[in-house]
């Protein structure tokens, strides 16, 4: 059905080349091959389509893939093969990406609070760019990484599921220009502005507001006789088609109006958008019991992955189905509560309507390619869930 393609990579996690079969066929074959542990099926063609579509919608924007979303070795290799740069959030990520022979100049160390040791490691590795948002970070940078090209991260208010602005970024009104002046006084070079509207951004107009603030700061620097030439518009792109269309249309118009011409390099750091829809998680059911809640039956279904494993960032827009190994007749849906396998009573995923399940049945959690494997912990001794990467013959 599918051939193992060791030729695609020398890494320990090879991809499988599909010949006229779907990722679901591979999942079914895996289960029938007596798989018991949970597993991911990662469709590299889907991630490839997302990368190409992002480039198509924002042709002026260079992608620096936020590898924190999914750092599976073949996801990273796909990103390298399609010419992406990388947003690294730690020196461990920098180390991992340099091992794939990515030039250090294709990395942004997008963290605003780095230790001296981390700065020295990045500098010695040849990384050139990093973000900052505070005066104390400038003091450290002056001592340990004086030749860095800095991006001033500004905080953005938005309607986002993950509000990164409450933790990162300086206040545009009260802090931004002071920080620019301070960096200049210290002889540090600020090469541009960075922002992140928050992960899974539901308010596309937030990008425009942030672009306007960035424009103001570019002009401020120009008046002071200093030139900035990089604009980093971060991530936050949702996989929902409608919202993606709206966000990219706002950004395209905003860039054309506020940053016309080729003098400013525009980069983005999408994570979730690239990999979320590429991957499904398959979980086996350990046990089922039925209780009575509010005078109604409720099926308690215990599965072999949960909040402390791959499902920590399980969200309300993710769908769950019973994974049928063969076609079955339509079954009635029943009230069901899903529990993870650990001893923590908070390891409870969601209440959902599912057909009656029995131990050894399988559930599939759709679109688990982002922040699932990378969030996973080892609580109660459970290990990382294996990913099976698939690629079509054509793309391979
Ligand atoms: N860049 C930075 C600095 C981030 O902190 C994150 C996510 O936390 C990303 C990019 C990726 O964001 P997203 O997955 O929403 O595209």
UniProtKB/TrEMBL annotation:
CDD domains for this protein: PLPDE_III_ODC
Any one Gene Ontology cellular component term annotated for this protein: cytoplasm
Domain (Orn/DAP/Arg decarboxylase 2 N-terminal): residue spans on this chain: 47-275
InterPro entries cross-referenced by the UniProt entry: De-COase2_N, De-COase2_pyr-phos_BS, Orn_de-COase
Pfam families: Orn_Arg_deC_N
One of the GO BP terms on file: putrescine biosynthetic process from arginine, via ornithine
PROSITE patterns cross-referenced by the UniProt entry: ODR_DC_2_1
Molecular-function annotations in GO: ornithine decarboxylase activity
Cofactor: pyridoxal 5'-phosphate
Protein keywords: Lyase, Polyamine biosynthesis, Pyridoxal phosphate
PANTHER family referenced in this protein's UniProt entry, alphabetically: ARGININE/DIAMINOPIMELATE/ORNITHINE DECARBOXYLASE, ORNITHINE DECARBOXYLASE 1-RELATED
Family to which the UniProt record says this protein belongs: Belongs to the Orn/Lys/Arg decarboxylase class-II family.
Subunit structure: Homodimer. Only the dimer is catalytically active, as the active sites are constructed of residues from both monomers.
Protein name as it appears in the record: Orn/DAP/Arg decarboxylase 2 N-terminal domain-containing protein
Source organism per UniProt: Manduca sexta (Tobacco hawkmoth)
